[in-house]
Design brief:
The structure holds 3 protein chains of 3 kinds.
Chain A (H helix, E strand, L loop, with lengths): L5 E6 L2 H5 L2 H14 L6 E6 L12 E4 L3 E3 L7 H10 L42 H6 L4 H9 L2 H11 L11 H10 L6 E6 L8 H8 L1 H15 L3 E6 L4 H16 L15 E6 L9 H8 L23 E5 H13 L1 H5 L2 E2 L2 E2 L1 E8 L5 E6 L4 H8 L9 E6 L6 E2 L10 H6 L8 E6 L4 H15 L5 H18 L7 H15 L3 H5 L2 H9 L1 H10 L13 E3 L9 H5 L5 E2 L7 E2 L9 H5 L5 E3 L1
Parallel strand pairs in A: 1-2, 5-6, 5-8, 6-7, 11-15
Antiparallel strand pairs in A: 1-3, 3-4, 9-10, 11-12, 13-14, 13-15, 16-19, 17-18
Chain B lengths: L6 H20 L3 E6 L2 H5 L2 H14 L5 E6 L11 E4 L6 E3 L4 H13 L12
Parallel strand pairs in B: 1-2
Antiparallel strand pairs in B: 1-3, 3-4
Chain C lengths: L1 H6 L3 H12 L6 H12 L4 H11 L3 H10 L11 E6 L2 H19 L12 E6 L11 E3 L2 E3 L7 H6 L3
Parallel strand pairs in C: 1-2
Antiparallel strand pairs in C: 1-3, 3-4
The chains are: A alpha/beta, B alpha+beta, C alpha+beta.
Chain lengths: ~600, ~120, ~160
């Protein structure tokens, strides 16, 4: 049987038939024959996918899930050449729709393209047959029967796939390093220790499509010559742990893990290892220490894991998302993948959207899409239509970017040049009510707490930054603090042992670069313009709107509010802890923050 | 469950799985799909699922397949319930609490009336 | 120690059984510690001592591992453990107010256990469900979109 890399579904409901669906199928078939693609592209009939307003027949192309509409017979040669030969989406014919399944959900996600998330939210993750029905494990079959390990590495190299964990190192190259390394026992490890606050793509893939990770790992192990694998999942994700374990058991009982997989002489098995709540274990050398039963502390590189990794054996670590993409590259070809994306960042990337954006959740878009498109077109804009202030990309080691950067195309290089990182694809969107000094302090609190303590710049440096930021937020900042902060940022970045330390100053540095005025107001005027920093604000009840309903007084946790029923109440600033509960519950907006 | 020993075995299993799916789709059975990833559960999907199962039992309904899936990515709409009456497209409902779940079973699944005010739209 | 009495089982016996089951490889140390932590709520000195003997690993190493990981505790915890997500997305989504309310309802600060050993209030790193933040976990149950008003209701389920 031929491997079809694309499936074209032509809608043959009465409306589309009336508009020439059958003629379109014939034309597609003829054109595919003409361009020599008939063995690679399958044309199928399907039920209704269009909408009644559509002018011509509709078709969907998988695996990309592109919906073309209003097609005339004359458009067919161009469409076939563009989409199937050159691998580019013929944008002028696409419809703002995504998949048949979630037709109604499609509008906010018109720019999405799902490769990693293709099955997530569609299939039953606990049923291996549903995965197999969607061509699951066919890539493994192809690799084991038709490709040598070297060819597999070459295919992944040519696709341009880079590590989705954030570092962006070419995956194929990494695999070649471990393949070429000397040693009888090699390990393939999946980094599922998704610790970045605000990132949840790995969790969603593991919970929604665990077999794509398992399949990707088996293919990688075959390419690298590894016989044992580990999936290191953080303990904060109990459902992901459970789903992965079930998937591994199913794959094993189907003979897809274990000895002589699919009748070949390749054997590989997998185990799940649970983290125990240490952010630094996302760093690969720390992760391996943790699997070995030690404190998860990073160690200097070289030696790199490809030479001396787990138990001093050659090891390779990739992210969940990287593994989940691999089967799609094998099935659809390196060129198909390389044609998606932007410059040196090929393919798609998932982004976890959180914070003050309307549509929170997980999206997948081709590289090269701008931040503005992601936040406004896919994310639906800012909650309550407030003003955008900043977006933090790439988790706690990323920078906060202001509005001027919204035109930035999302790829590894562009974000780095802007002083941030792609990281794990977390996007925390912040609106005008956010205090950037408070945010910087907040992230520093995180990295300071998560610093493993092994190297001094990170252990002490982050502590010093946090102390200064806390002081500024309390209205005790000094003008020279800004210079000291910049110096500390530089020192920590240059001298830390691992990525956690090197990246830790990014939120501070980027807020200093882009929001210096807010620091200055905090330091010089002892004011918090966003009214967030507690020591710099006070709560007051305004005379007019207050009806004396007593609601605030009854809910105040420290009994700081006084007043007679039906009389304007008063807050005692000496007792008030500025928790903000009164402001939230007041039905008359009578509480003002000054 | 048979062990897959070759690529042909794998293809056979795929064909069987596809056939099973087709039979399911043409059987006239209605599928009710609940997003049961962590996000769904945090937003209350367990209560929603429980209400669905209870309503099905109370109304003495048969030919309904209730199954679960991961979280599709629209976190702000969780818990999400999808209903696919055979031969028709899936309809997705967002922020489904137990009362809404009850209505969805009674009105959409039984009577075939889509409850448009609960539907997730662009 | 109330859990212990309830189970009627001895720490040392359980540790012994766990080592028996999982083996004495050093790589099993963290999984075994997780199990002990899960069963008793914390890892006692007695457990560390027994584990050290059974696995032939110095007690100091076990202690250093047990104190390194946030989800392992060497201090006894209350009957119900509350973990509140303190990450940026939840913070931005109104988590600050929920946290205030939690502290107020329980009369506890971060990391404290109530005198009646009923509650322990902890924070956790990101749980990856930021789309429905603020998020908290009580024992093994996760609650999303939590508002300050919902806090007493959630807690009352554990009375």
């Amino acid at each position: 049987m031929a491997y079809f890399r694309s499936h074209v579904l032509v809608s043959i409901d009465p409306i589309c038939i009336d508009k020439g669906a059958y003629e379109l199928i014939d034309a597609l078939h003829d054109e595919l024959v003409k361009q020599g693609l008939i063995d690679e592209v399958q044309v199928l009939e399907t039920s209704r996918i269009g909408d009644p307003e559509s002018e011509g027949p509709d078709l969907m192309v998988y695996p990309e899930g592109v919906h073309y509409t209003n097609l005339s017979l004359e458009d067919v040669p161009f469409l076939v050449e563009e989409h199937f030969l050159k691998g580019r989406i013929a944008a002028q014919y696409t419809r703002e729709a995504k998949e048949i399944a979630d037709k109604e959900l499609s509008a906010p996600q018109a720019k999405e393209m799902r490769i990693v998330l293709k099955n997530v939210g569609e299939i039953d993750p606990l049923n291996i047959e549903e995965y197999i029905a969607r061509d699951g494990y066919m890539a493994l079959g192809k690799v084991l029967t038709e490709m040598t390990p070297e060819e597999t590495i070459q295919e992944v190299l040519e696709s341009g796939l880079r590590g989705r964990g954030g570092a962006g190192f070419p995956t194929g190259l990494k695999w070649r390093f471990i393949r070429d390394a000397e040693g009888d026992q090699k390990y393939m490890i999946c980094n599922a220790d998704e610790g970045d606050p605000g990132a949840f793509a790995n969790r969603s893939v593991q919970e929604g499509d665990p077999h794509s990770v398992v399949e990707g790992m088996i293919i990688a192990a075959y390419a690298a010559g590894a016989s044992q694998g580990y999936i290191y999942v953080r303990a904060e994700y109990p459902i992901a742990v459970r789903t992965m374990r079930i998937a591994i058991d199913q794959a094993r009982s189907f003979g897809l893990l274990g000895d002589n997989i699919l009748g070949s002489d390749f054997s590989f098995d997998l185990d799940v290892r649970m983290g125990a709540g240490a952010f630094v274990c996302g760093e690969e050398t720390a992760l391996m220490a943790s699997i070995e039963g030690k404190r998860g502390e990073p160690r200097p590189r070289p030696p790199f894991p490809a030479q001396k990794g787990l138990w001093h054996n050659p090891s390779n670590i990739n992210n969940v998302e990287t593994f989940a993409i691999v089967p799609q590259i094998i099935l659809n070809g390196a060129m198909w993948f390389a044609n998606i994306g932007h410059e040196k960042s090929t393919g798609t990337k998932t982004f976890s959207m959180a914070g003050d954006v309307k549509n929170t959740g997980l999206i997948e878009v081709p590289f090269g899409i701008t931040l503005r498109e992601i936040i406004y077109d896919v994310g639906g804009g800012i909650k309550e239509d407030k003003k955008f202030k900043a977006v933090q990309t790439g988790g706690p080691m990323g920078g906060c970017l202001p509005e001027e950067f919204l035109h930035l195309p999302m790829d590894y290089e562009a974000l780095e040049q802007a002083g941030s990182i792609l990281g794990s694809g977390g996007l925390v969107v912040m609106d005008e009510d956010t205090c950037m000094v408070d945010i910087a302090r907040f992230f520093m609190e995180f990295t300071q707490e998560e610093s493993c303590g092994k190297c001094t710049p990170c252990r002490i440096g982050t502590r010093r930054i946090l102390e200064i930021l806390t002081r500024i937020c309390e209205g005790k900042g000094k003008p020279e603090d800004i210079v000291t902060l910049r110096l500390l940022c530089e020192q920590i970045n240059e001298n830390s042992l691992c990525g956690l330390g090197k990246g830790a100053p990014n939120p501070v540095k980027s807020t200093l670069d882009h929001f210096l005025d807010e620091y200055e107001v905090h330091i010089l005027e002892k004011r918090c313009p966003a009214k967030i920093c507690k020591p710099l604000i006070r709560f007051e009840i305004i005379d007019g709107p207050c009806t004396g309903c007593t609601l605030c007084a009854r809910n105040c946790p420290v009994d700081a509010i006084f007043g007679e029923r039906r009389q304007t109440h008063v807050i005692d600033p000496d007792i008030c802890i500025k928790c903000g509960i009164c402001e939230q519950i007041c039905p008359y907006d009578a509480i003002e923050i000054k | 469950m048979s062990t897959i020993k070759s690529l042909d075995d794998l293809k056979k299993i795929r064909e069987e799985a596809l056939k099973k799916q087709q039979i399911k789709e043409s059987s006239g059975k209605t599928e009710v799909i609940v997003g049961m990833g962590t996000v769904g559960i945090a937003a209350g999907a367990r209560e929603t699922l429980k209400a669905i199962l209870e309503t099905i039992e109370k109304e003495n309904l048969s030919d309904i397949i209730v199954r679960q899936t991961g979280n599709i990515g629209l976190d702000s709409y969780e818990p999400i319930v999808q209903v696919a009456v055979s031969g028709k497209d899936k309809v997705s409902y967002g922020k489904v609490n137990p009362e809404m779940a009850q209505r969805i079973i009674k009105e959409h699944v039984v009577e075939g009336e889509i409850i448009s005010e609960y539907q997730i739209k662009g | 120690m109330s859990v212990l009495v309830k189970n009627g089982q001895n720490v040392r016996n359980i540790v012994r059984a766990l080592v028996e089951e999982k083996g004495r490889e050093k790589s099993e140390l963290i999984p075994i510690l997780q199990d002990i932590n899960g069963q008793f709520g914390y890892i006692s000195d007695e457990a560390i001592k027994e584990l050290s003997e059974r696995m032939n690993i110095p007690g100091s190493h076990i202690y250093s591992v047990a104190t390194f990981y946030r989800m392992l505790s060497t201090e006894p915890r209350g009957e119900h453990v509350i973990q509140f997500c303190e990450s940026a997305p939840c913070h931005v989504a109104g988590g600050r107010l929920v946290w205030e309310k939690l502290k107020q309802e329980l009369g506890l600060e971060k990391g404290e256990t109530s005198d009646d050993e009923k509650w322990t209030l902890l924070t956790t790193s990101c749980l990856g469900v930021c789309g429905v933040g603020p998020v908290m976990i009580v024992d093994n149950n996760i609650y999303g979109n939590v508002t300050p008003e919902q806090v007493p209701g959630i807690l009352s389920q554990y009375n």
